[in-house]
Write a structure and sequence with these properties.
Blueprint (H helix, E strand, L loop, with lengths): L2 E5 L4 H13 L2 E8 L6 H12 L4 E6 L2 H5 L15 E2 L2 E2 L6 H16 L3 E3 L15 H15 L4 E3 L7 H10 L3 H7 L16 H15 L1 H11 L3
Helix pairs in contact: 1-6, 6-8, 6-9
């Protein structure tokens, strides 16, 4: 039996990864992290989406220690979400978040004997987070494999897709409307199309706009990049 563990926030990217995983694997387990994030309403939507999509195992892990350790607009309500960058990194960056997420997911995968951990990180259309880059994921994956003496593989289906192509992927699986209406990508925690002003909403909206205007072109480009 092929079993995969999906890091699932309830946002556009992770939901797209989940939809694809449900088509590709015999069993899928989801892990959602509660770290006291500003947009923690995403947890409720993650729970609802996992149930709607038929996920049988959905773990919600409390890792509030991350909130205690990090200062970011996503962990401090008194810091406004800003699109401005300091030293090329936006103030929504939560240092160590994906290091912790992937490490905990790998520990869980070890226990359930899964060799696959899926995450929706991407370095094509992204906010400039260093822990979303391919070289980071591969480096951490190598360390995890050595440290656990187990061949656990981090899979990043969206790594080289732009947001328009991510929308195309969700459309390929007939879930574009579901993902548009029932996910929370917005840093301010607003469902669907979100606040329209934060970086996450900007990337999401512009990707959707381009995809709807150039659907056939983007679908063709997606198929050239993937094994669809």
């Amino acid at each position: 039996m092929k079993l995969a563990v999906v890091l699932f926030s309830g946002g556009q990217d992770s939901t797209t990864c989940l939809v694809q995983a449900l088509e590709q694997y015999d069993e899928v387990h989801c892990i959602t992290f509660d770290y006291g994030q500003r947009h923690r309403t995403e947890i409720k939507f993650a729970r609802n989406l996992a149930s709607k999509l038929g996920v049988t195992v959905h773990k919600i892990l409390n890792i509030s220690v991350l909130n205690d350790l990090t200062i970011s607009s996503l962990t401090r309500n008194n810091i406004p979400v800003s699109n401005k960058h300091e030293n090329s990194i936006p103030n929504t960056f939560v240092p160590g978040r994906n290091i912790l997420f992937l490490t905990l997911a790998a520990i869980y995968a070890y226990q359930v004997q899964s060799e696959i951990v899926i995450t929706g990180v991407c370095e094509t259309d992204f906010s400039g987070y260093p822990d979303c880059r391919d070289n980071f994921v591969k480096s951490l994956n190598k360390a995890i494999t050595i440290g656990m003496a187990r061949n656990i593989r981090f899979v990043t289906p969206l790594m080289w897709l732009n947001k328009a192509e991510t929308w195309a992927l969700s459309d390929h699986y007939k879930k574009l409307d579901l993902i548009r209406q029932e996910t929370v990508t917005c840093y301010n925690g607003i469902q669907g199309d979100g606040c329209g002003t934060c970086a996450a909403c900007y990337l999401r909206f512009n990707g959707l706009k381009y995809y709807l205007a150039h659907r056939l072109l983007v679908l063709a480009r997606l198929k050239n990049k993937t094994n669809l």
